[in-house]
Amino acid sequence: MGEKFILSSAERSPIFYPERQSLFRNEKAFFGSRTFSIFTKINFMNKKDLQEVYNNVKPHIHKTPVLHSRLIDDLAECKVYLKCENFQKAGAYKIRGATNAILKLSEKERSRGVVTHSSGNFAQAVSLAAKNLGVPAYIVMPTNAPKIKKSGTISYDGIITECEPTIAARERESSRIQQETGASFLHPSNDIDVIYGQGTACFELLSQETDFDYIICPVGGGGLIAGTCLFANEFSPKTKIIGAEPFEVDDAYRSLKSGKIETNATANTIADGLRTNLGSNNFPIISEHVSHIIRVSEDEIIDAMKLVWERMKIIIEPSSAVAVAAVLRETTFFKGKKVGIIISGGNVDLENLPF
Amino acid sequence: MGEKFILSSAERSPIFYPERQSLFRNEKAFFGSRTFSIFTKINFMNKKDLQEVYNNVKPHIHKTPVLHSRLIDDLAECKVYLKCENFQKAGAYKIRGATNAILKLSEKERSRGVVTHSSGNFAQAVSLAAKNLGVPAYIVMPTNAPKIKKSGTISYDGIITECEPTIAARERESSRIQQETGASFLHPSNDIDVIYGQGTACFELLSQETDFDYIICPVGGGGLIAGTCLFANEFSPKTKIIGAEPFEVDDAYRSLKSGKIETNATANTIADGLRTNLGSNNFPIISEHVSHIIRVSEDEIIDAMKLVWERMKIIIEPSSAVAVAAVLRETTFFKGKKVGIIISGGNVDLENLPF
Prior knowledge:
The structure is a homodimer. Chain A is an alpha/beta fold and about 350 residues long. Chain A has two domains: about 240 residues, 3-Layer(aba) Sandwich (Rossmann fold), CATH 3.40.50.1100; about 70 residues, 3-Layer(aba) Sandwich (Rossmann fold), CATH 3.40.50. Chain A is built from 16 helices and twelve strands. In chain A, strands 3-4-12-9-10-11 form a six-stranded mixed β-sheet, sandwiched between helices. The longest helix of chain A is centred in the middle third of the chain and has 15 residues. The first copy, chain A, is globular. Chain A starts with a strand and ends in a 12-residue tail after the last strand. The N terminus of chain A is likely disordered. Chains A and B meet through helix 14 of A and helix 14 of B.
């Protein structure tokens, strides 16, 4: 495992992001104002280490298909390949990270179990990953979490503790469980082993299709896109990684601009998976490798979701539609390019659809 | 090409359908009353001919995937494999039949074009198949056909003529076009070349998975299940073909019982593709090869559709959900067996969903 320092953005030349100017053509000073000086030390992995992460995770996950559609290519005016993590176990990429993080625990740690707090997909992913590996999973869920997510978690033998629907209550409750049981806490997007696990979706994509000019990831907590960066950087260094997020929760866009982790004042987006903020471990990785963030409107998200459902006949969740909307929005930028999109999942409440 | 006569049911022993009794255990006389005496002469194809049909059609269609789901296996208590024609061009299996029928025309006939009347999927399938083969397609559509189907047909260069929404008007209008243009009429489910073309979905399925005990097909006009029978009979003679239809339009169930083509008094089913009746060419094939028809309720159809959408993350249309509902309904019958299901398509109006 190699060790490497992430440079602060101040040390990088603006020429490092030449395409930003063409994309954000009305924002000449887009990255000129970046003043952050994060200087984070992370143990980075080389090709062999990353391959090993994948080999370890592989027996416990589905190798999901990569789909493309002539119609979407025509609309986007480029070649679009969807890495379909909606077909992943528990309906989302998150089992990859949960599995990798649990595999990294010692036997003693595993015997004590894992704990996380989540109102949704990560709860199910941790429960299923833990079940697959014979590890107890303690899940702190807010009382207002959707019933279907609770029943999913229970079906994977997750041990649920309910708490008030506040971050403070969730953290307090999981600390208590940690102390009482000795369980290891797994953060859904900032745990470095979770991040590496999530990146295996990109690794598979690069083994299924080659020569991508761009890979677009939805950005919520930042774990998926950070993991994607780490794998793409080693296995396809010419591929640029682009984030996609709703205008309504554009914290990652603003964070890259300001150089520090920004938060959202409101969360009025249909893309419920993207309401969270970046974390201290993934933000430096994103800052280093993500060439830019495309923001899309709520209407664009809904239209993209409907388009994929209607034309490709696959269920993608709104958070994934954000990335599809990004490629459809910036047709001039992507014209003629080869673009991969990480479809993060397909967990949708069919009784509460936007169309 | 071999030639063979279909025997009337009166000449067949009841022991020919031993499993009927176990399935329809409360209907001892289920097939006892069959008195029809159809004696149809059709040129049946041998393995080599059928392989040639597939080879001809293959360059113009997608080879669709076969999917399965552990959850659905658990619920159905058997192994279920979905042949996903929802991923077919134009969203349904129908392009297979349309393509084969057009390929069977002489060059002179092709130059005059093809004509059909359809309010939906077959209009789009014929238009796209004809476009692929450089043949004009005249489509008679009722004035009340859904806008999305009309725009789909137009996008595939189909030449639409509108008519009053009655069968008589549709037939009159297509006769007129036939006479004026010399175009060849294609029937969506009773044209024998269309039937053979539809059967190529089953041929592919049998090349993707083997040793099926049963293959379940939704039954509407009868073209898909008849084609399935013809291919399965040659390439997997031990596999039994079962039809699935809604209780609300159980004309095929009643037709097999009475020995003549029955019609439906009403069409109150969500499975809009299954409202039509069997035809003179496909009925004898179905009578010969289909071991039984399973009927399902509207609630069962909606539940099955929701289950597949939620758990498999693929869009299937209500007509396809009928076949999934059938395997979920008759768990005792299918217990431990290997079952293929032809998912006919994924064309759904997202703005008019049942949940």
